[in-house]
Write the structure tokens for this entry.
Amino acid sequence: MDRQWVPEDVDINTPSAARVYDALLGGGHNFPSDRAFAREAERVYPGLGTSARANRAFLRRAVLHALDAGVRQFLDLGSGIPTVGNVHEIVHAVDPTCPVVYVDYEPVAVAHSDLLLKENRHATIVAADARDAQHVLAHPETTRLLNFDEPVMVLMLALLHFIPDEDRPADIVASYREPLAAGSMIAITSAANDARQDELAELTKLFASSSNPAVPRPKAWIAEQFGDFELVEPGAQLVGDWRPDEGLDDEQQDHIVFGGVGVRR
């Protein structure tokens, strides 16, 4: 990988969630430590790579659903390292003028997003911690592109399991739901802990050694994060079961990522 754009202070020896996810998706913006971590994660929890790809496919289907419903603004929290099928690529294939705001604090994710978007007037990256909703929502780049008096889709995909209980993740989600206008949508996915307990315990232990410890939670808790938003059919599901593409293989037992899309009526 070309290191010219990678910030000098990046710790390439400690795996990060954004770079491991990139490795699981087959991306090229990760380091040997991230790839080794991804291989070990797949060993202790077989099918994790399938789950990562299922989550990425859910992103595409959720965004296309929002576009079909008339939503034309997107806020992607914990957006990670840009790879094939980014939100703005999906959105701009339908309407090149739709604003898209990415939010992440991982240095490689921010640096690569800056490069990718520097010539794009309708998409930007906000270097911020998604846990600070007040800062994110008031950031000049956010307010430059997004009008919260009109419908916005907020995406929180594979994010909440990296927010520990002491940071009150439910309150953080509520802080993003509260300012959204009627017609807005929120897409949430997170690792669920309702099955394969022994393997999941090993996976959680492994992530504790990375820069982003993970906290899988019950499906019921994940579903509660939609608050008073109406769940879009078929409701909260394992992401592979949410409006699956035709021809998708039947490996749902490998998917631990649970979520859906909610709309404010």
